[in-house]
Each structure stands twice: as structure tokens, then as C-alpha cells.
């Protein structure tokens, strides 16, 4: 009997895998090209890389294709793939002051050094369903590209170098919170050791960088709306390409390539802990792979919020924020409820039935609602 | 554009890289040295979802060798779909022999059951753990539960058990009943039924626990005292299957599953698939011995 | 790993780890680490070297003390890429059995919330046996992993080290874990949970240690 049953389970899995493939392919449409996904579904690829925790657009595109466009699943596939890669080097800290800027805006000043550069953003597009996209063809794309290039002045483009940061203006004026000498500034690697609480900021920011955008948004929004007190001004948000360097065995710095990142610095006024001392500004920081404004702004809010613990606001609670915005872990655990639980259920059933028997009347509300002490 | 060779998949023996294996191994030694204490570890992602046995897999894959004979059960059954999936994964990654026979296995991974058949000194038993922190229900913050364990301050836990008794006339904890290990740490035995809890006490085998999502490892060495939490006047007890028996074998001294047939009739059957098979084949597997089983009528 | 060493980083490391795990889970149980033809450095036993190979890598730190400790450290870091650390911070400490016991008090013993942040000492002794030998210390081990009581005989171990370990492990879960190896590749472990006692052989020849 055992063998047959095991065979049944194994067969069921295999059939289910076949069905997944079938549903992806059943209409026999033209196969999606990885390059198409990479370029035309850029934002999805960026999200998958960010949550997957590895900068590899091509692999992210493959994962998206494999997962039929399900971003959670694709990020999970990429994260699992990432875990098989050896970490050969730690890069030097990237310098976003040297970013080749594609987009750079500040909400805090009307004019900033280098000017406001909107760059590619959907912020000011009208969100009207563009039905012409249904008929887009190669020719239309070619025509658009040719027309687009006409007004671009390549000389001017070459002049673009790098830009100072908005927060430097505030820093030079002495308005930023001074560095707290007691702050834990150790550099953790959350992929090599489990996070411990209270976690240093390095670990918190790493967790946020790999967190799920929707989760960050829910908590960041909650903090702004009333269940918290962080409602910052976007000091600067920039998106562009930065160089990545590693030190080789001889200690020489080597350029290994460029990655695209979005960075936000959010400004909130903070109260000084001491009475009568002057107020200051707190900078919340966010950085993630690819282009994802929502994510970095919410990172900024939560970074600020977590630095002032407050039990009344979920966004200010490190453990709450970091554990529950981790999309891959949340998704896995929520979905594990689909696994059979009949042993654990039977164990609970025995208790409930016992309590019902003990009680002459109907079961009391309380007996039934008695909390499950162990998550199963 | 994309050449296939670029994406050729090649995995290390047992999938996990050697650096991570070493980390897990070092931490398992600490876990064994401090019975019941939860050691944090890096817990890298696996190609299995979080909450589906990643912690158990980390332990299994970090300790497994070519000579091991591997068995895996989920809810007591070798045939459960997730057990089938993980078995296939471990087999593909190690080429180890797999088995359904409890006594033949050297390494057994489980979700939520201890085998009915007694474990031996030559076996390692690996648990998949969803929530390693037994105090989480009474204290939500990790830094505080750590402190409570550190100081062996378990007052909150005892209060909650007492409240449960006052409210419902019994300690209403089902699977994953908290235990005290080596008279020191309160530990979550993973959501095994209460039926299995006494079998952890003075077991001949080494028990290793992996909670992947929560990134914790812990252990119960062989011949270690493991006691279910109870009061002097309100005792721990196992699930009561009084008046029922396995409809296939007539056996009464095993954990039973409740089945409903198409005609609405209710039947019970031995949960442990291999134990059931052996009884059906008229073999007599040696069962765990504990005072709760002894009390039962056969 | 260097090519002149015949050591399989995957399978030898795994096999040896399982023996260490078994000894750690069953204090006093003697396991024999298979005799591999590896290149050695003077001052450390083969079994201890193989334990270092099995457990150490770049994420772990260690130190060696006593005679030839610099050579030993250089050798281990070359073959495992583990970090050399001070005695106070090292995860693993390699030491000879005749070492005076003062170093034990220096080792990290963890904190109450994180007791695992503590040292493991790997000690080279002359002989580990279930039979009494001349000048041996009789170790009686009790606690998790031991059914009733386990007795082993060890020679070439400064008993003051045992006193110091007992002292350090008094405030369980804080403490250090001990691995003993001998010239025949025998190994036993004494985790901090173990409540051990020892008796010296009744002889005039008990070696003198500081």
C-alpha cells in the first residue's frame, strides 16, 4: 500500500508540473523572447531583481517568463538561484554622487544644483488606457525611435557629468542630525547571518532593499496617514547608473560594471532628545536595484520611523517592519497553509471535543477561540 | 543571443554550497551543546518555498553523506505530496538511497510527526519547524523572548497555561506542545501531536530542528530529559483515541487519522504510513515506549 | 585547498563532521577520524587538523596557542581561509593538552541571549581510551547525550584545563565546548551541558603541569 500511495503523490506532483506548463503554452502563441521581457517589461524585471536580491536582468526576465509574470514567484525563483552563487567579493560602497543620472528630482527646493530632471516617469502621464498599444508593430516602434532622436543634442548629452546632492546643502548649513556616536555602525551581511534585534542600520536597510514593494508601501503609507508620524519631504530622488568596483587580491580597485539603482533621501524634522537644544533634520534613506520610486521613498519613511521606536506605530517597530515586509518569506508561509495539517488539526480537535464534553451546555465562545499557541 | 551553455545548471553535492554547509554544521554543534536553545543561522533561500521545509532541508543537506539512507515523511506519511517533492529533490541532489522503511533509514526528515517505530542510536531525526519560538504566543518580540530564555524567565508561559486551564478545564494546547529540555530551556518540539512528545524524552536518536524562515536551528541530543509542561494537579496528556481503533488492523496504540468516507461514515486509520504497512504485512515493528502508551488497552 | 593535500572538501569534510556531531551528541563516545594522507604541520595532531579542515572557513575565526602556534595558525589559515583572531575573540582555539590552563578564562563564553557566541577548544592529548592506561585521567561524563554515565581515560591532558572548563561552564548556557583528539585520531567531545568529573590515576608519575 505504501508504495502505491507514494507513487500516487509523486505522480500528482509531476502531473501538476505538466499542467503548469500546459497552461502557460496552451494557446500556442509566439514564445516570449527574454530580450523582449527585459526591455518591454523593464519595471517588472527591476522589481524581481530588487526582491530577488541579485542584479541580473536577464535571469530576472527568465524567471518572469517561467512564473507567467507572477512577480512574487519570479523574485523567489531568482532569490533561490542567488543562494547557489558563491560570493567571491564584497564590492566597495557604490558612490551615488557619481551616478550617471537619468532622473533626479527634489520636492524640497524649487531649483537644485543641476536642475530638476524628470527623466522617464509615469508620474505625469495621463492614466488613460492606450488602446493603440494593442496594434503596436515594428514599424511604429522604428518611427518613434527615429522621431525621438531628432531633437536630442548629443553634444549636450556628453556634457552631463555628476551632480551634488540636495542633502549636502542642508548638511553644509548644519541642519542635519549629527552622527550619534552610540549608534551601532557595524556592517552586517544579512545573507550570511540571521538578523538580530535591535538590528544595526546596515542590516535594516539591507532587509528593506530586498523587501516587497507592496509591503513597504502599506507600512510607509500607514505611517504617513496617521498610524505613525513620519511624513517626509523628498529631499532628492535619483535614478541612474552607478559603477561597481571590487578590490582584487592585490588591493587594487577594479571596475566590474554598472548597475542601475534608484535612491531616495527623505527629510523629516526631528525633535532633539534634550530639552532646549535646537531641532534638526533626519534623513531617511532608500536604495534599490532598477527603477522603483515607490520602494525607495517607502524605504526612506521606514528608515526614519524605525530609528524612533514607538509601540503605537507599526512602522516604527523594527521587528514588525522587517519580518513582515520580507515578501518571499511571507508568501511562502502564507501558502504553506495549503499543505496538509490533519495531524495538527486532529490534535486540536481532541482538545476542543474534550472541552465541549466537559461543558454541559454548548461550547463557550472562549473555548473555541482559545488561541493556537503554536503556529503549525 | 542567449547561448544555452551560459545557463547550464550545475549544482554542488546536496545543493547547498560548502561555505553554508560549514556554517550550518558549526551551528548544529552549538545547538547540540546547548540542548533546546535556538541558534540563529543564515538560512539561504532554497528552491522550496519558505514554510515548506527549508529549515529541515538545510539541516538534512548540510549533514547528509553518500552512504546515508534517507526517509522523509509529512504528517506521518511517506506519500504526502510535499514529502514526495522533497524526497525527489534530496535524491536528485545527492543520489542517496531513499527508503520508506523507518528502521532502514539513517536520516529521517519529518514534518509534524515522530515515527511510531522506535528510533535507534544510529539514526538522526530532522524536523521541519514553522515557529521555533515557544514563547511567541506570550511575547511577540524576539529580543524579549531571547532575554526570557537567557534568564530562564518563563513566568508568562506558565500563566498562559494556567489561564487556558481556568478557561477550558484543560491545557488547550494541541500540536507543538511546549517542552522543557534538560531542565533548562523551554522548546517548541515543532507541531508534532502530543502523542509524540513523550518520545523525545531519553530518545536513543539525535533530534535536529531546522526553522528556515525564522532562521533558527536547535537540537535535542539522545538521552536527554524532555518534559512536557504541566502542573502538579493539571497533567499533560496525549490525544485520547478511546473507543476507536484502526479500521484496517484493529490496532489501538498508535496515533490515528480520522477519515470520512463518501457515505459519510467515520473511520480511523493508523497515521504513520510505514507503521501501518508493517502491521498489515504482519511484521511487528518495535514501538516507542512511554507511560502514556503503556496505560492504553491494546 | 592545496593540491598536495589529498582531502576532499565535500565528502571528507562531511564524513568528519558527522563523527564530530556524533561525539558532541554523545559525550565520551570515542569516534575515530579516518587516517588521511594529508600534509601536516608540526605541533598539531592529524585529527585536530582534519577537524579544522572540516569546520573552518572564511566565516570562522580561530587561534592556536603554545609551541609552534604561529606555524599552526599559518598552516590552518592557508588551507581553510579562516581568520586568525585573538584568544579573546576566536571561535576555535587549538591547543596542546599540556598547556597551562590560564587561557581558558580568556575565551569568549557567549551572552545569555546568544550563548553560542562562544569558543570551542580543540585539545591535542596523547591518548584517549575506554581502558585505563598508565598516568591516565579517568573522565566520568554525565548529562545530555549520556544514558547513565560514560567513562573514558585520557593521558596527556593537564587536569587544570578540566577544572578551568568546569569553572567556565558553571553558568550554563554560557560556556565553552571541548573537543579532545589523540595521536591515534581518536576523538571525544565534552559540550558545556556536560556535568563531568575526573579522577587522577594513583601514581607518582602524574606529569606536572602549571
Automatic annotation (TrEMBL), chain A:
Q: Which GO terms describe its molecular function?
A: lyase activity
Keywords, in A-Z order = Lyase
InterPro entries according to UniProt: PhnI
Q: What is this protein called?
A: Putative C-P lyase subunit protein htxH
* Record flagged with keyword Lyase: yes
Q: Which Pfam family, any one, appears in the UniProt record?
A: PhnI
- Organism of origin: Mucilaginibacter polytrichastri
Give the compositionally biased regions (Polar residues). 366-376
One of its GO biological process terms is: organic phosphonate metabolic process
User: Lineage of this protein's species?
Assistant: Bacteria, Pseudomonadati, Bacteroidota, Sphingobacteriia, Sphingobacteriales
**Region Disordered: which residues?**
356-376
Lineage, top-rank taxon, reads Bacteria
Automatic annotation (TrEMBL), chain B:
Traced from the root, the source organism's taxonomic lineage reads:
Bacteria, Pseudomonadati, Bacteroidota, Sphingobacteriia, Sphingobacteriales
GO biological process: one example: organic phosphonate catabolic process
Please name the InterPro entries in this protein's record. PhnJ
Q: Which domain of life is it from?
A: Bacteria
GO terms assigned for molecular function: 4 iron, 4 sulfur cluster binding; lyase activity
Q: What is this protein called?
A: Protein phnJ
UniProtKB/TrEMBL annotation, chain C:
Q: One short Pfam family name for this protein?
A: PhnH
Q: What name does this protein carry?
A: Phosphonate C-P lyase system protein PhnH
Quote the InterPro entries the UniProt record gives: PhnH-like_sp, Phosphonate_metab_PhnH
Q: Could you tell me which species this protein originates from?
A: Mucilaginibacter polytrichastri
Organism classification: Bacteria, Pseudomonadati, Bacteroidota, Sphingobacteriia, Sphingobacteriales
GO BP terms in the entry: organic phosphonate metabolic process
